[in-house]
């Protein structure tokens, strides 16, 4: 809990493996703000399907 600094930005092209999404809105945080990377809903909602199977995130475009 608390306050952090963040910047809103637009990613022209975001590619994860064979999945590519253009014009994805993002929030950029300080490197120390999180312990891991996040894939946000602004990316996931642009896919045909996403789900977790046996602890693995499945992305379908």
How can the largest sheet be summarized?
A: 2 strands, antiparallel
Q: In terms of per-residue confidence, which ranges show pLDDT below 50 for 5 or more consecutive residues?
A: none
Order of helices and strands: EEHEE
Order of strands, widest sheet: 1-2
Nearest-integer average pLDDT: 93
Distance between the termini: 35 Å
Bulk shape = globular
Tell me the number of helical segments per DSSP (H or I, 4 or more residues long): 1
Tally of discrete structural domains: 1
Which short descriptors sum up this protein?
globular; two-stranded antiparallel sheet; 1 helix; mainly beta; 61 residues; 4 strands
What would your notes on this structure say?
This protein is mainly beta and 61 residues long. It has one domain. A two-stranded antiparallel sheet has the order 1-2. A two-stranded antiparallel sheet has the order 3-4. The longest helix is centred in the C-terminal third of the chain and has 4 residues. The radius of gyration is 13 Å and the shape is globular.
Task: Give the topology.
Blueprint: E1 6-16, E2 19-29, H1 41-44, E3 49-53, E4 56-60
Summarize the entry for a quick read.
The chain has one helix spanning 41-44, and strands spanning 6-16, 19-29, 49-53, 56-60.
